[in-house]
Amino acid sequence: MEAREPKLEHLFDMHADLEAPQVLAGTPDGMRQIFIVKGGSVDGPRIKGRILPGGGDWAIVRSEAQSSSTCAGRARRTMAR
Q1: Which domain does 25 fall in, by range?
Q2: 59: closest CA among 36, 29, 34, 37?
């Protein structure tokens, strides 16, 4: 059986408006940065919507070479194409 190239399809572009980061330096896990989502947009070939306020991105920077991030948010579809 011959390997096939994976088929990729562009789903959407997402743009989020964020508040200034809240920085908590010197925690046992590293520097924490919290970015709160104010709103934004989702736009793709078959879907369009807006990002609702209240989500966020919670990042931990452990070193210059290591970080982790947890993102959560909600979007409301305004139009299916």
Answers
A1: 13-80
A2: 34
Contact 66, 48 (CB under 8 A): no
Place of tokens 């046992």: 28
In a domain, 1, yes or no: no
**Residue 2 binned pLDDT confidence (cut-offs 50, 70, 90):** confident
Residue 54 phi, psi dihedral angles, 5° rounding: 115, -15
pTM of this prediction? Answer: 0.70
The tally of domains found in the chain comes to 1
Burial class, 51, CB count within 10 angstroms (exposed 0-12 / middle 13-18 / buried 19+): buried
Q: Quick check: is 5 in a domain?
A: no
For residue 80, what pLDDT band results from cuts at 50, 70 and 90? low
CA 72, CA 37: separation in Å to the nearest integer?
9
* Any domain includes 76: yes
